[in-house]
Amino acid sequence: MVGTITPTAVAPDPRVATSVASPRKDRSKLLASVVLASIGVVFLVPMVWIVLAAFNPAATVSVALPSDPTLDNFTQVMTWETSFRPLWNSTVLSFGTASLTVVAATLAAYPLSRFQLRYRKPFMYSILFGTCLPITAMMVPVYALFVSLSLLDSIGGTILFLTASSLPMAIWMTKNFMDSVPVSLEEAAWTDGASSMTALRRIVVPLMRPGLSVVFIFVFTTTWGNFFVPFVLLFDTANQPAAVAIFNFFGQYGTVAYGRLAAFSILYATPVLVLYVLVQRLSGSSFAMAGAVKG
Amino acid sequence: MASLTEPQVDRRRRGPTPRPRPGAARTLGRLLPLAPAVALLVVFLVGPILYSLYGSLTNRSMSGPGAADPQFIGLDNYTQLFSDGEFWTSVWLTVLFVGASAVIGQNGMGMALALLLRAASSPVRALVGTVVVGAWVLPEIVAAFAAYAFFSGDGTLNIVLGWFGLDGPAWLFTFPMLAVILANVWRGTAFSMMVYAAALNEVPPEITEAAELDGAQGWQQFAYITLPMIRRAVSTNLMLITLQTLGVFTLIWVMTGGGPGVQTSTLPVLAYQEAFKFMQVGYGTAIATMTLLVGALFSVLYIKVLKPEVD
Fold first, then answer.
1. Does B28 reach chain A within 8 Å, measured CB to CB?
2. What value of ipTM does the predicted structure carry?
3. For chain B, which domains are there?
4. Which residues in chain A have Cβ-Cβ distances shorter than 8 Å to B244?
5. Which chain A residues touch B309 with a CB distance below 8 Å?
6. Could you give the CA distance from residue B199 to residue A256 in angstroms, rounded to a whole number?
7. What's the CA gap between A168 and A181, in Å, rounded?
8. Shortest CA gap B289–chain A (Å)
């Protein structure tokens, strides 16, 4: 256990840790650490409120240590109507959207990555263009479209729209992942008489499983956190995902029940945090999502 | 099976090879996997955009005669829009929100954090990095509640100000725009920080070392060596955060609801209010179309920056 003790014993004081470096460098390192730590505290405070309020039966809007910490807030919101049904709806929406997106994006990425197509460049430009469009600005016309397709208040319809809005980014990411799978393996399969779809299913997809998981989780978490789209397209409380349910809860009880609001927020946010850590593991870098977005 | 066993690959092929019939059939077969994605994109993304252009030319509303039989009214919505003081207020608020919270706030803070992360000791770096990214990973609505509580009249910010003998105002009513701008900086800085941290890692250390030997001070090194080397990351980041911030709705909606009055109604909030609160779908669509046009303009600029990656 020496290995775990040494760094913790040494690291907090940078002056000891880098005794070889010049004193000027040590001082700037200490200064940077202090400044960084103060910024970190400012960033942390609003989040600490959620955690402390969730365990505080008498929570207010300010950060305060609960004098009598309990799980009451959690037990009160953990009913079918308040949390479990909305969380289930969120799961259906996110899982449906992520699965459909990954399948459609993988199929689309294959010809884009492997074949010389005449309209490949303009298509990729349009895809890139699509990743940029502010979807929030589109919701009024989307609502009107859903009225004419009579898809309002339909979970299936909402999944289709969410899939379409995640596809540009997903195709972009999937194509980049697929470009890094060498073609030589497929050439062997083609020589053995496999069709290109068989090659995709048997060779390419297994090889890019980590990449596809990143795309899946990326779409899943984005959908899970999406508030505006279901807020506009789904009205029936039985269909609403947690993002919308939590907003309605805030409207009804928010001003009196901050503790329960915070407890509900924690239940809702936990899956996203877990999946984010998982993506870090999968891609071996904590900044993977930003890297993927960067192109 | 002969035609299927030899799909040609990019690098084998030099230039277009015009082949009549079997070629056309093969091209069609190759394009087939694109069909599901293209169908979804056409129906649910291209459709609403085209509809947005058309719908903004009608007097469609939620109820009344405009709902049953919307009439084509030409550019009336736009004439009304451009002569509407509320619209111009909203445009100004959107520019202010994007400029202050994204271009200055997130961008500057992200760069500062990325530089500090490199200079600080490793435990501090790991902890603060996680905290900043945490605010970004949280679902938007939860982040919005946290920011709402922080800026509330009896919220944490005013309690801390109270320790210093200051009597803080009710931020969400007195300075609503400042509150949503700061909240958006808090929530979105992680993205710029990550982009810049990755970009700074790519700068070869030899170059900064050489500059140091030549006597360049810290800030000189940054301004004349580092910044020019990561300028592509800077422009990419600026475009992306501008587009993200242009679409921010939830944060503002939860914290202020666009109010008090119209003091925080940026374009997405105004479009929502016109269409769903005041039931003027055609008018709301016209606002949405304007926002989309601004977004499209920035997207084109962004694509220009990224051009080499497509080619």
1. no
2. 0.82
3. 85-310 (1.10.3720.10)
4. 134
5. 295
6. 46
7. 21
8. 8
| The pLDDT of residue B106 | 95
Domains recognised in chain A with CATH numbers: 2-54 (no CATH), 74-294 (1.10.3720.10)
SS3 assignment, position A20: coil
Mean pLDDT per 10-residue interval, chain A, length 295 residues = 31 43 76 93 92 86 82 86 91 96 95 86 86 84 87 93 94 90 84 84 87 91 93 91 90 75 92 88 56 41
The amino acid present at A200, given as its one-letter code, is L
Residues in B closer than 8 angstroms to A217, CB to CB, are none
Q: What is the pLDDT of residues B171-207, one digit of tens each?
A: 888 899 999 999 999 999 999 999 999 899 888 888 8
Render A44-78 in DSSP notation, one character per residue: HHHHHHHHHHHT-TT--SS----SS--SHHHHHH-
**Cα–Cα–Cα angle for A151, A154, A155, rounded to 5 degrees:** 135
Q: What is the mean pLDDT of each run of 10 residues along chain B (311 residues)?
A: 40 45 73 91 90 81 67 83 88 94 95 92 90 92 93 88 86 92 95 92 85 82 86 87 91 89 89 84 85 86 72 61
Tell me the two tokens of residue A191.
């020589």
Backbone angles phi, psi at B112, to 5 degrees: -60, -45
